[in-house]
Amino acid sequence: MQHLDLQVIEQALTWVREGEPVWLCTVLSTFGSSPREPGSLLAARRDGIHVGSLSGGCVEEDFLARLRDGVFDAPISEIRYGDAQDAHPPGVTLPCGGILDVLVERLPPEPASLEHLEVLQASLLGSRPLIRHVVRDGGRFHLSEDAGQGARVELDPEGRAWRLRIGPAARLIIAGISPVARACAEFARGLGFEVIVCDPRKEMRADFEVAGVELQSVLPSQFIASGACHAATAVVALTHDPRIDDLAMIEAVRTPAFYIGVMGSQRTSQARAERLRRSGGLDEAAIGRIRMPIGLALGSKTPAEIALAVMADILRVQRGRPRDAL
């Protein structure tokens, strides 16, 4: 799956290579109802050709008209759309009643812009997660490595620069097919994850079909060991079959995956932890990375309810939210 952010950066890169200035827009924050989350990107040319979205269509027309009029020729601008008193321009409101803050950067067709976009492209393709530091006074920017999860957009403590996270598209590897796995794949696709389901059992793969989900006919442990996990990857085992689940966990803890979990009751999880120590050779630090039982304690019973608890917990960890903050 080609992440929408990757499409935006690749098109911006193409335009800069062709000698065109590019306006790169980032959603900074939203208040109330808004169809696009902070960190969402849009790239545009002066003539209005663009890729990506800021609001799902609510404000793009106004932004592109103002871009053609030369409003955003400064290296950096911050604008607010919505129905608040300080919205600018005041006449543009969001039909959903929300408020939207947007960062607009003008990237001239020069080597510095080209190099910056090339590094962003590499990050989105899976090289490593990065943080873009964009100085509010003058629009200077630089990159640093991102050590963990957190909000996609943050203002530094002094209020001088934006910290914008960028990295590989979120990936979910599901070890083994089951009713919970099917529901989990459907939820994850709706949340924008790249979803890969691995199961060597032909009979289980025969009637498994979820739109947009990649199906691999290999042991999940083999797929995970092949280098399939990056820092934006979650690995879940949802079959109750130790031959699939345990091996997947043994390999997953050797990767940089940000979330690793396996389904089972408290008693089953305790027995699994002992097997992983005894047969898998895992130490306490490795076992501590595995969330078992998996998911939030929602009292889930049905496959859909369990899948909801799993994906909610993955999203919680991805956003850097502790359990006691829920």
- Alpha carbon gap, first and last residue: 31 Å
Shape: elongated
Order of helices and strands: HEEEHEEHEEEEEHEHEHEHEHHEH
SS field, number of helical segments: 10
The radius of gyration over CA amounts to 22 Å
Report on the biggest sheet.
6 strands, parallel
Taken together, the total number of domains comes to 2
Question: What proportion strand?
Answer: 15-25%
Quickly give the structural class.
Answer: alpha/beta
Uncertain segments are none
Question: How many E strands?
Answer: 15
Residues in helix, %: 25-40%
**Sheet with the most strands: spatial strand order:** 12-11-10-13-14-15
> Can you give the mean pLDDT?
89
Supply the key terms.
single chain; 326 residues; alpha/beta; Rossmann fold; 2 domains; six-stranded parallel β-sheet; five-stranded antiparallel β-sheet; 10 helices; 33% helix; elongated; MoCofactor_Util/Proc; Xanthine dehydrogenase accessory factor; NAD(P)-bd_dom_sf; XdhC_Rossmann_dom
Describe the protein in words.
By secondary structure, the protein is α/β, with parallel strands linked by helices. The protein has 2 domains: 4-166, no CATH class; 171-325, NAD(P)-binding Rossmann-like Domain (Rossmann fold, 3-Layer(aba) Sandwich). Helices cover 33% and strands 24% of the residues. The protein is built from 10 helices and 15 strands. The protein has helices at residues 4-17, 60-68, 111-124, 179-190, 202-205, 220-228, 242-252, 266-278, 284-288, 303-318, and strands at residues 22-31, 41-44, 50-52, 76-82, 99-107, 130-135, 141-145, 153-155, 161-166, 171-175, 194-198, 214-216, 233-237, 259-262, 290-291. The strands form 3 sheets. The protein has a 6-stranded parallel beta sheet with strand order 12-11-10-13-14-15, with helices on both faces. A 5-stranded antiparallel beta sheet has the order 3-2-1-5-4. A hairpin with a 5-residue loop joins β2 and β3. α1 packs antiparallel against α3. The longest helix has 16 residues, at 303-318. The protein is elongated, with a radius of gyration of 22 Å. The two termini are 31 Å apart. The mean pLDDT is 89.
